[in-house]
Amino acid sequence: MTLILYDTLTRKKREFVPIDPERIRLYVCGPTVYDFAHIGNARPVIVFDVLFRLLRRFYGDQHVTYVRNITDVEDKINERAARDFPALALNEAIRHLTETTAKQFHHDIGALGCLPPSLEPRATEHIEEMRDIIERLVKGGFAYVAQDHVLFSPAAMDQAAKSGALPRYGALANRTLDEMLAGARVDVAPYKRDPMDFVLWKPSKEDEPGWSSPGGIRTKGRPGWHIECSAMSWKHLGEVFDIHGGGIDLVFPHHENEIAQSCSAFGHQRMANYWMHNGFLQVEGQKMSKSLGNFVTIDELLTTEKFGGRRWPGQVLRLAMLATQYRQPIDWTVAGLNEAERVLKDWSAFSEDAPEGALPRAVLDALADDLNTPKAITTMHGLRRSGQSAELRESLRFLGIKPLAKERVALRGDEIHWIEARIAERNQARARKDWKEADRIRDELLASGIVLRDNKDGNTSWEATA
Ligand SMILES: [Zn+2]
Fold first, then answer.
1. pTM above the 0.85 mark?
2. Strand partners, 159
3. Residues 314, 42: Cα–Cα separation, whole Å
4. How far is the CA of 298 from the centre of ligand 1 (A)?
5. Domains of the chain
6. How confident is the model over 95-119, as pLDDT tens digits?
7. Which CA distances in Å does 328 have to 90, 176, 247, 312?
8. How far is the centre of ligand 1, averaged over its atoms, from the C-alpha of 227 (Å)?
């Protein structure tokens, strides 16, 4: 069976051929931990969780390493920490902010049914690897020191690209240096030789997070964002690995710069063999923004009445997300969530008591075709129609979608007495082997929404459903 993935770099769907089938290596850019994750942030986490599950299925659980980092040093963090915790020293405020935000993130995505990645490295624990890469880049002539900053020079990389030694800067974004310069919001800073140069390392003020600097700089400093992912992927996955993923908004400059840093430092044509990007997320047909008031966090969907006037179960959010193929833009709507909930309620009730079953080939085939989740879901509707409850249950399990529990109904005391009296009568019928009468009572209760379960210990438990 073949796994086909769309690669942003070659702009083609290609068969996935691992570097080493014993060790499949996947890196996905994780959150910068300074605020609640919004529903757009949930998309790559869910999409690459499905890919992780699929790779484990193909190559075995022990042979897939999925690294998703936590960015815990970044200027947005410093600003937010200073604003939210003015009474604390900045470094202490930062620690508090990043720890609580990371915890919230884990809670949110756990509710969305995502498996933990194999490794979750933090940027602050990889400063040494960042310094190491920066030293290599300076030595190789791809980076230079100016006013206590270290800057990467895309022009220097392009020189090496002309002789075929390195890939061209801009190959992932599919743009030339001139086009990127015209389209990008580049800071013109006095320490830059060229406006396209980007920061690998910058000086820190006394109260800002700071570490001893590379490049012979005497003052303390901190890394730029792009170098963090080059360092963490190198440390845990090596110089070249299989798949690098993230949202489409990361293609330029973040991923372009990761490639520039890693390929120039280690002298390879590639950083990763496949680059995968999920599409944008809109809310009710509009770009999500705080100013439009349609900004919605995962936590708000799970625990408040902000979206559609109610809370939503995590597995409904997950199914709604997977109803759109990952590369397509997704429109996040109340109607879409209602539909996902209606379907999941039906599937859950239908497959609840199903025996163990195999994952149908058609579901696997759909997923192996560049994660075609809508096609997999269409197949699952077919399983429902043809009565294949075991296969539907296994498909849900494989996609990480927990069934919805039946709604529990509050009963009055006299109703409970009636139910218990009927169960006692049924147990008497069973004791005298009057199965017909026992079944009749069971069906009578079922018609009133009471489901019986005969347990191994001989007792009968019951549950009221809507
Ligand atoms: Zn990254």
1. yes
2. none
3. 11
4. 21
5. 4-278 (3.40.50.620), 281-398 (1.10.730.10), 413-464 (no CATH)
6. 999 999 999 999 999 999 999 999 9
7. 41, 25, 11, 23
8. 8
Alpha carbon 159 to chain centroid distance?
36
pLDDT tens per residue across span 348-367: 999 999 999 999 999 999 99
Nearest to 261 by CA among 182, 198, 195: 198
Map tokens 């720890």 to a residue: 99
CA 92 – ligand 1 centroid, Å:
25
Ligand 1 centre to CA of 35 (Å) is 18
Q: Which residues surround ligand 1, an ion (CB under 5 A)?
A: 29, 229
pLDDT for the residue 231: 98
Between the CA of residue 196 and those of 182, 183, 269, what are the distances in Å? 10, 11, 21
Tell me the pLDDT tens digit for each residue of 8-41: 999 999 999 999 999 999 999 999 999 999 999 9
Q: How far is the CA of 299 from the centre of ligand 1 (A)?
A: 24
CA of 264 to the centre of ligand 1 (A): 17
Q: What is the mean pLDDT of residues 307-325?
A: 97
